[in-house]
Amino acid sequence: MVHPDEFKGPEADALPDTATVPAELAALYLCMPPAQLADLRKSKRPDGRAGNGASIIKPVEGGAAGPKDVVLYKLGTLREFAKSHTAPTAFDTALDSGLPGWVSAKLPFFAEREPRIKRGRRVLIGGAWDRADPLREKRFADLAKGRIRFTSLTCAEAAASLWADVASHSALGEKGLALLRRETEAIEAALAATAQLAAASNPDAVA
């Protein structure tokens, strides 16, 4: 899954722009599904019209000779693209959709390389979609070198998993608990309003 190059010294915590990564990791770095990245690298649409113009991401030349060959991207190209495309990602949209997104949308999480056998739960390290995370470059470097892995989970599944540290787990868990509280309050308010409506329409009813 990873490019065989080894990076040491200054590149230990952040891969250089010259490093190449496969499409799967490139999509993760850009916080988009692999299918979206595949569409962005097309120079033309199926109907022959021009593609997405400046949004086209070119893979490394010679990196793929056929549909089953590995497509590689230079990390510098991905970084430049990320800087010029700061709009909310599909992952951001899923999180902003409230409780439905929390329990249904699959998001990428960094995880320990080998899952521990503790109640059958994987051990997570952090969210892999947060581009503002100061540790993201280091974790991406560890991922590219095979030191950690990533897994797709809903936030609800992640909150119910084991984590490598309490602070990260608490930060995610508190968001979910806040969503649940708001949802509970909305239901309770609706129940109270229904009771008031029923009482107003039938004043002779015995409480």
Helix and strand topology:
Layout: E1 20-22, H1 23-29, H2 34-40, E2 72-74, H3 75-84, H4 90-96, H5 99-104, E3 107-112, E4 123-127, H6 136-144, E5 148-153, H7 155-159, E6 162-163, H8 166-201
Parallel strand pairs: 4-6
Antiparallel strand pairs: 1-2, 3-4, 3-5
Helix pairs in contact: 1-2
Write out key terms for the chains shown.
single chain; 207 residues; alpha+beta; 4-stranded mixed β-sheet; 42% helix; elongated
Note the main sheet: 4 strands, mixed
Query: What is the rounded distance between the termini?
Result: 66 Å
How large is the count of helical segments? 8
- The coarse overall form would be elongated
Task: Briefly note the structural class of the backbone.
Answer: alpha+beta
Number of strands: 6
The percentage helix is 40-55%
Rg result: 23 Å
Query: Can you write the helix and strand succession as a string?
Result: EHHEHHHEEHEHEH
Strand content: 5-15%
Strand order of the largest sheet: 5-3-4-6
Low-confidence stretches: 1-11, 50-55
What is the mean predicted local confidence, pLDDT?
79
Provide a concise account of the structure shown.
Helix content is 42%, strand content 12%. With 207 residues, it is of the alpha+beta class.
Structural commentary:
With 207 residues, this protein is of the alpha+beta class. Helix content is 42%, strand content 12%. The protein has a four-stranded mixed beta sheet with strand order 5-3-4-6. It has a two-stranded antiparallel sheet with strand order 1-2. The longest helix has 36 residues.
